[in-house]
Structure formats: structure tokens, C-alpha cells
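Thread: "does anyone have the structure for this chain?"

Original post by V.I.:
We have the sequence but no experimental structure in hand. Need at least a predicted one for the grant figures.
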Amino acid sequence: MEGFFLKKRVLGIVLLLVCMLLAACGKSASGGDGDKKQLVMGTSADYSPFEYIDTATSEDIIGFDVDLAKALGEKLGYEIVVKDMDFSGLITSLQSGKVDFVMAGMEPTPERSKNVDFTDSYFRSDILMVVAKDGDVQSFEDIKGKTVGVQIGSIQADKAKELQKEVDFQVETRDRVPDLVEELKSGRFDGVLMEEAVSKGYLKNNDSLKVISVPNNETIGASIAFQKDSEFTEEFNKELAVMKENGELDELVSKWFGGVE
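Reply from O.Q.:
Generated one for you, C-alpha cells below.
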């Protein structure tokens, strides 16, 4: 009986060693793309040109953030898988481990920084208000008593609260930026707060819209979000600095925004 248990113990050790060997082989980044470790990027694919679904050619998520994430992943030996979700759920998904990092034109506000870590900024675009070209709102002061739309959980939602201290107006939220624009075009909203870089695409495709300036419209800039104390933060930050220095980041900015900001 003692020999029987000894044999079972030896067999268990052998199986454990085999599993460890297989796991080590699976994590190797030295082979082809199939051997790279996958990192899941959480984003909200409604924020062109940062990230959006190109329905004209495919259902793939494309954009500036996607190109930058894949460039960084290639340099660091990771395969980047992009997962689309509502902007308001990105931080929670990162904290719970459903995604490994977030890129969605997201700014590192003090509130967000309590829950996740951020890299240095990789792109900055100021906030403005999109309004109907022939509507009642022709300046920021005209928004008094009217309704402004913002994306849930966005920096624009925070900015709206600041602006309400200067002019009294109502704020309504939606999950997706295209929904905000449709509400504006239908007359249910009188203005929509968004980043200048994002507004250009909507102005190009809608002759009935224009932009007006708002006070204190400067932003810190978009950054990559990781879990608290993640080893990836420093790793990505270093490579991001290299891309800034050698001009690769400027090339991506030029590709998606038409010039270096």
C-alpha cells in the first residue's frame, strides 16, 4: 500500500512539471504572433478619430488610439486585442480585470487617478461646444436656460459642472457621442460639449453644425490607464517617450488628425 501511494505522488509531481513546462512555452514572446502574450485594450468605439468602427469597410475598430496601442504592443512584444464598451464602464472593467488597459481619449482626472494609474499624456485637444449653425446659441452666454449634452463619465461631464457656475443651463447625458449629436440635430439638445479633435469629423459630415468656444477649455490630455501599481504603466510609458522623441507619435497624429498638435 505504501508503494502505491509513493507511485501516485511521483506521478503527480511529473504531471505538475509537464503543466509548468507547457505554461512556460505558451507565454514565450520569442516566436511568431501566436506566441505573444495578449493584452486586452478597453475602449469606447464612438470617438472618431481616436477609436471608431469603420462600417464602410469592416466591423474592425480603428483609429489613433488603436494604431498607437498596437505600435506600443509590437515594440514591447504584446498582441493587442481591442474590446468595445460604454465609456462609463471602462474604469470599472479595468479594475475588475476584464481589460488590461484603457485607451479612449481618456484624461487622468484626480477622481480617476484614485482608482487607476496613468501614463504621461500622448495627445491633447481642448473642449468646445457644438451647436446648430442657425440655432439660438451663437455664443456661450446664449446657452443660459438651455440644455447641453455630454457623454457619461467623460471630462466634458466634469467641465459642464464647472461651466454651470458661470451660466445656468441643464445637463443631460448619453452613453455614446453619436447619440449626443443626433439629439442636437433633432433639437432636443441646444449644445454638445466635446473635444475639438472629435468635433471636426461631425462638422465635416454635418453642414448644419458649428462650434463655439467655452471658458477654461484647456485639457491635460489623453493618457493610457492601467490598474493601480501595474508593471505595465512604466513599461508603456518608457516606450511612449521613445515614440515622442523619434517622431513616430507625430506621424500617427498627422495620419489621424491632419497635423501635429
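V.I.: this helps a lot. The two ends are 76 Å apart (CA to CA).
O.Q.: and The CA atoms of residues 49 and 63 lie 5 Å apart.
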